[in-house]
Amino acid sequence: MSWRWLAEWIMPPLVLLLPILWGVGSMRRGNRRRGTWLAVGGLALFWIVSTPWVSSFLLYQLMPPYRNLQGNEADAIVILSAGTIRNRLEYGGRVPKILTLERIRYGAWLARRWHKPILVSGGGPGRSGVSESQVMKSVLENEFGVPVRWIETRSRTTRENALDSVPLLKAAGITRIYLVSHAWHLNRAVPEFERLGMTVVPAGTGYDEKSINGFSFLPSPSGLQNFYYFCHEVLGRVWYIWLDRIKPDGS
Q: Contact, 36 vs 30, CB < 8 A?
């Protein structure tokens, strides 16, 4: 079983279904008391973490405080990829996933305001041989009208984003960067660049205004999605902590 398949099983929504299925199985085997507790508890947990109120609260715990950027804190903008869709028929090829597109848009907005050069980072070439960063570059230049100076095409993880991007930046004399990603990802991404000698200014997107209404306490697809992002980020941080313990040099 690949790591990707294992990750899918320990991530929502599948992991949230396991106690429910376990409970149903226990009831079918005659243990109605334990099965009922498991099934009802699993349903309650699924409900709670799928509500926007809970999942948004959890996601906000991962975010650094919002910072009003001025444009003089750094010399370049680094935008991290969050995946692409392999073949979108109406576009005739590979396109950014929604998270990547949100990062692209914010990076383009900053670049137009401050006239800073952009580096895009993301590998994972598909069958066409086109990397995620090449897709990002195309969208930035052809749709947002913002030039890309550097393109990093090999990385597949946040740590590799830093390892493969920093040499390009240092070769150009750049040591201070705005790092564009989703706010809940920055507390994991920033240290990866700092450990390689960069001064990093977090430039997070996704700081939504907090609002509570009756629908905030009802399960929703967006609530479940936010909980997925939360779990993905927490597991990523735990994984990097473990890697640093077994490989202190970060190799």
A: no
CB of 63 closer than 8 Å to CB of 204: yes
- Indicate the domain borders of the chain: 3-62+222-246, 76-205
What is the helix (H) or strand (E) element at residue 87, kind and residue range? Answer: strand 84-88
Please report, as a single letter, which amino acid is at residue 192. E
Q: Residues near 248 by Cβ (< 8 Å), separated by ≥ 6? A: none
Q: Which fold has domain 76-205?
A: Rossmann fold (3.40.50)
What Å distances lie between residue 58 and 62, 131, 134, 227, 230, CA to CA? 7, 32, 33, 8, 7
Instruction: State which amino acid sits at residue 85.
Output: I
SS3 196: coil
Which residue is listed with tokens 């907090």? Answer: 210
**What is the average pLDDT score of the chain?**
91
Which two tokens mark 158? 């946040």
pLDDT in tens, 72-120: 999 999 999 999 998 888 988 899 999 999 999 999 999 999 999 999 9
Distance from chain centroid for Cα 241? 18
Nearest Cα to Cα of residue 124 among 84, 79, 166: 84
Instruction: Quote the tokens at residue 27.
Output: 């009831």
CA 32 and chain centroid, separation? 41
